[in-house]
Amino acid sequence: MHRIGAHLSIAGGHINAIQRTLDIGGNAVQIFCASPRGWNFAKIDDATADEFKKEAKTQDVSPVYFHASYLINLADGSRIANLSKQLLTHELRIASKMGVRGSIVHLGSYKDNGKNHKQLCDNIADVLEKMPKDVEFIIENAGNRKVGQTIEEIAEIIDELKDKRLKVCLDTCHLHAAGYDLRTAKSYNDFLTVFDKTIGLERLSLWHINDSKDPFGSLRDRHENIGMGEVGTEAFKNILNHPKTKKVPCILEVPGFKGEGPDKKNIEIFKSFIS
């Protein structure tokens, strides 16, 4: 069975995202632990966490992912890095209680364009040391000039830290922007070969499924509804039907046809590519 869902609102409580998933025809979901626009440390008691975990299991909504705050920057050496580590550790502890698979993280950007690989890895290592053993730290690839723009850069981090909890989220819009071609059977297979060789397909936790408003290699990250952009339907067909990736969960982060976020129509279009 394909696991397909979307990033959905937690308005009214995290548990409401489960019903919202069912309403759009999904069976997996991504949510924020707390508002991503500030340094907000969610307060979720054990009873609330248990209720969420039970409801997700009852409704067969799995996996569930957190998306970390947009403010996080683990490539920074200042106060921001310390706040980032505290927030991520807190969030991943909640993930463990709620039955959430892990948190998807934008690693950030180096200060003043100066690359400090050791500082970045040390910051990630601090989080890995303090987070629970049963959740994933999921690095999302970047579509612009930030950490994780290339598969090779993500591989360097994983090779340095050698932790099984380090996983990867591949965003189709970001890959398209960064010059990774998924649009033909050959180019997709070539990409998987490179990814498997440099990182390993066992590290691929999920896909972020987004079309793109911008041309290939643009280094611009602007999501579009499925089939309405430059990524192209063949890329989505490849992801859903290739034997090496058809079982990898897919989470849509599209603007929605009414501009209100991921919707049933986008899910239906994406599912129609399953052969």
Would you write up a description of this structure?
This protein is an alpha/beta fold. The protein has one domain (4-271): Divalent-metal-dependent TIM barrel enzymes (TIM Barrel). It has 9 helices and 10 strands. The protein has helices spanning 16-23, 46-58, 79-98, 117-130, 151-161, 172-178, 185-198, 233-241, 264-271; strands at 4-7, 28-31, 64-67, 102-105, 136-140, 166-171, 204-209, 211-212, 223-224, 250-252. The protein has an 8-stranded parallel barrel, surrounded by 4 helices. The protein has a two-stranded antiparallel ribbon with strand order 8-9. The model has no long low-confidence stretch (mean pLDDT 96).
Q: What's the CATH superfamily, by name?
A: Divalent-metal-dependent TIM barrel enzymes
Tally of DSSP β-strands: 10
Order of helices and strands: EHEHEHEHEHEHHEEEHEH
C-alpha Rg (nearest Å)? 18 Å
Number of helices: 9
Structure classification: alpha/beta
Shape: globular
Topology:
Layout: E1 4-7, H1 16-23, E2 28-31, H2 46-58, E3 64-67, H3 79-98, E4 102-105, H4 117-130, E5 136-140, H5 151-161, E6 166-171, H6 172-178, H7 185-198, E7 204-209, E8 211-212, E9 223-224, H8 233-241, E10 250-252, H9 264-271
Helix pairs in contact: 3-4
Summarize the structure.
By secondary structure, the chain is of the alpha/beta class.
What distinguishing features does this structure have?
275 residues, alpha/beta, TIM Barrel, two-stranded antiparallel ribbon, 9 helices
